Amino acid sequence: MSKLEEFEIFWKSLAGRKVNKKKAKEVYLKIKTNLSPQELSKRFNILYRKTGEEKYVPHPERWLRNERWNDEINEYDDGDKVYRDNEGFIISKEEWEEINKQN
Question: Which residue from 75, 81, 82, 45 is spatially nearest to 60, judged by alpha carbons?
Fold first, then answer.
């Protein structure tokens, strides 16, 4: 799969506003990561959901340029950590540990 095809998968999977696709594509083609486009979009979407207000979420181009996929983002609900599967669905801590043991 080409980097252009990967970018389209990434772009289509993003939550929220998708602005400045041209610049985002330019940055995506230059980044170096072993993460799949699905994993990159998942990490962006976690930040999007956690932030709560769209105006505080960086545009995809800036998020890519600053390698924000490396940020540690933990979600909490009433003080308890929220665990998610690869599709972003909330799961138990045990399920999460099992998934991450395999990776």
Answer: 45
